[in-house]
Amino acid sequence: MAMVLDAFASYIADTIKQMAADEVGMLLGVTGEIDSLQDKLESLRDYLADAERKRITDRRVQGWVTKLKGVMYEATNILDLCELKAMGRRDAAPSPCCNPLLFCLRHPMFAHDIGSRIRKLNKRLDDICKLGAAFSFIKLETYQDYRTGRPSAADRKTDPVLERSAVVGEKIEEDTRALVKELTKGNHGIVVVAIVGVGGIGKTTLAKKVFNDEDIQHKFEKKMWLSVTQEFSEVELLRSAITAANGELPRTQEKSQLMPALKNAIKDQKFLLVLDDMWSDRAWTSLLNAPFSYGAPGSRIVITTRNDTVARVVSGDEDGPDIDMLKDIGLQVIEKCDGLPLAVKVMGGLLRQKGKQRHDWEMVLNDSIWSVSEMPEELNYAVYLSYEDLPPCIKQCFLHYSLLPKGGLFHRAEIIGMWISEGFIHGSSDDDLEELGMKYYSELILRNLIEPGIQYIDDPVFNMHDVVRSFAQFVARDEAAAVQSGENGNISELTAQKFLHLSIESKVPESEGLDWSSLQAQKALRTLICLGHVNIKPGDSLVAFPCLRTLILHKGPANVAVLVESLHELKHLRYLSIKNSDISCLPENIGEMKFLQYISLRGCRQFVKLPHRIVNLRKLWLLDLFGTSINGIPRGFCALKDLRTLHGFPTQVDGDWCSLEELGPLSQLRVLDLDGLQNVSATWSATKARLSEKEHLTNLYLQCSSILWVDGLIKDEGVSEQRQIKEVFDFLIITGYFGRQLPRWMMSTLLACSLRRLRTLGMIDLACCTQLPDGLCQLPYLENFRIKHAPSIKHVGPEFLQPYHHHGAHPFQVSLAFPRLHKMYLIGMLQWQEWVWEEQVQAFPVLEELFIKKCKLRLVPPGLASNARALKKLTISLIQQLKLLENFASITELEVTCNPDLERITNLPKLQKLTIVKCPKLNVLEGVPALQILDLEDYAMEELPEYMRGIRPRHLLVDCKLSGTEWDKFSHVEHVKAYSHDGNKSRTLYVLYTRDPCGLETNIIHSFVSAGKHMSFVFIYLSVLTLVHFILCPSIYAHFFKYITFSFHLSMSFVVMQLQF
């Protein structure tokens, strides 16, 4: 998407620095020209933020910015060519002797051409700088780069020892006295005090002064100093805390045993804890908070940090008085939003970043953006303010998000990969760019600039509101366009303007799709996204787009294989995604595309072969082969040392293809998806792939061909019995397990040992398995659990929640089952009838969402209702024998769908939204005083249920086919939406009614007259009319009755009798 000037300059500077480190300029003999380019850009950087801000509303500045960006884009192309040539030279002659003069003699044309192009760029840059002087740009405060502040080498560790010779000044003495006074006053609760400031300001020195103060020595029973480095080890931090507290240190590296030891060391003790140099709140929220909460009242915690957000999280900053002091400003900001909910939401996200300082809130309220005259229609003031408050590096990520087609489905990892490929996220080889991208993505979420959409396992897909999208596309209008063909979209602008970033979404049939040839004029494209049908003909190619960095072809383009033949021409390409297409292979010369980082061929069913030269792509980070028909990977795959994500790796044990052993050297892997494990012999072990050495690996997928979908013999469980996973993954998905019993490593205590850090577990297609894992409840960090298609499980016994441990003569039980589980999905356990829950068992303390579908469960155990006190959303679907749901004290949303035997729903005191779909025997609904929304859907329902008289929802949605007047059952409801179907189309007929203020809207009359049917549905319409006439609005009734009589003539005589007047 559109580059943001100051961030773009930073990207070029980083690129040049990396080239200098790699001696690229020296190798090619163009060092002087590159240095001159860098100097000129550095001289401009202080003023680029002001230019970027002014260009949005000033077309003259926009013209200047366009010229400057043209130079910068050309610079990145030239720098790429330099690096590409240097890489080729190293590959050809890897000797340490690299003489630039010799290179120039051997490649005189290239060296002359590159040098000449850079000199011309420098001349253009000089001219642009002169033109810029006329705009009187000012130096604005720049944002701190997200990468700044990171330790350059090993993280700094501190201790409480104070070097007195280094401590001078009355100010620090004054601050010390004030802080000591604060820490020693009162004995109520555990208080957190934060010292926040930039690096080098003296936070640690002040903390040391306080820690060693004489008054502190006598006030606390225990004093502990912990240095929380950025890349801290959880185990080492816990061991250090236990030692500092003079506790008994267990001889173990298990966190589950160290945390209780820490709790015991400080329980009921009055302590002072200093957490020095905290970079994030992770150490506190996931590790130290729980055990230190057992300290005695009067205990104190001091943290030093550069991040005020960390300070707020650790201190639990929720002081009511501070909020009250800001309420008046907040109300004025809301007033400026003109009642637009989205604007209020975005401003809330912005003010959240400002903390609780009144001055910061006043700056938002009084920002000059609110008073910009002649604001273009596309610019929403609130979105504009939020955009301007973003750091430059995140601004361009935000603009890029608006380019993604609305009809597409892009996961977080894909989007971050695009950002990296475009240069929006950059840094040295030591920086974790994906982690940085996660922070950028989270920032957009926190500011409400993107919002959650479809929910996948641990990976929701986010959307951008149309108002926000329009703003972003307006800001990027000179460089980028997102166009549609079909559904009122048009592509005329493709010929009227040249773009750098282009997204095309086609919603028309293949025969009417956009011709590929119509894109040929866009020769400067760096991003091309095509979603839907595009007509590709023989002879079409990619040659016209030599500058492409990102190429995405999804959902429908036929004959993509024609384009793939010219893929090697895209020398700058970083990101290639071809999904659900007809290609069967990639060209062998793809090995020439040295910059390629991401290749996704997901869903290309005809794809059967990778080229052997793919092993030359040494910068490759991601390879996605999921859903292809490939059955082998070329040997030499282990050379791709930077590979981080690998989906759909086909396991092989012989032939000309690489085996699991070639995964061994790939130490950077984060995500690994192994497919076809049914092909691996029983002697296979995780040691083949050296999983134990992959310290970054967090997500593991194990897939077999499931018996649920493929005919064949049931495989012996011994295959997976040997496949013992003894690593610390965060995310594990097992698909197509054939055994009757789960492997031993998934049962009881072995599971807690092997997967102690697991956060998400999915088990899909357990064709023959008869038992759920009995060790799941012990996993201390498990947050998401999903079972899908386990048709042989009939019984869930007490061991699921309360396994016994046998570590000695006397077995003992786990005290709390599933301590951190937030979401549980139990789907397709077709024979499941009984869930045994022993009365004393405690479980699911933080469970928020439970989904049960397709089973024969006769009774939801009472223990679930009494224990799951945090449960908010419950979905019960397609359960054959369930008759009763009751006593869930906390749920606010309930959906019951296609439960033929369900009769009663009672005692749900906090329920706010209830959806009932096709539950014909449900006749009792009571004990729902908080109900706000009731949704009834069943076309077999001939009358509204009697329980409607006893409940008082504010909103009623009825989707059915009624045959009689029913208004007396819902006359007390404030808002009614009633729908019916027209043949095969659902919800084609509607009545929308509001009680106060009185309102009525419908399309029944027109449908009735044109089709001459739907007599049954008209009753609900007339029921509403009757209600309007007799209770609220007789004038409205008179108008509609006159219209009905005119429209229906004699056919309405029966209806008139029903009104009885």
Automatic annotation (TrEMBL):
Keywords: ATP-binding, Coiled coil, Leucine-rich repeat, Membrane, Nucleotide-binding, Plant defense, Repeat, Transmembrane, Transmembrane helix. Residues 173-327 form the NB-ARC domain. Residues 405-471 form the Disease resistance protein winged helix domain. InterPro entries: Apaf_helical, LRR_dom_sf, LRR_R13L4/SHOC2-like, NB-ARC, P-loop_NTPase, RX-like_CC, Rx_N, WH-like_DNA-bd_sf. Residues 540-773 form the Disease resistance R13L4/SHOC-2-like LRR domain. Residues 10-90 form the Disease resistance N-terminal domain. Pfam families: LRR_14 (PF23598), NB-ARC (PF00931), Rx_N (PF18052), WHD_DRP (PF23559). Gene3D superfamilies: 1.20.5.4130, Helical domain of apoptotic protease-activating factors, P-loop containing nucleotide triphosphate hydrolases, Ribonuclease Inhibitor, Winged helix-like DNA-binding domain superfamily/Winged helix DNA-binding domain. It comes from the Eukaryota. Belongs to the disease resistance NB-LRR family. This is Uncharacterized protein. It comes from Triticum aestivum. The lineage of its organism: Eukaryota, Viridiplantae, Streptophyta, Embryophyta, Tracheophyta.
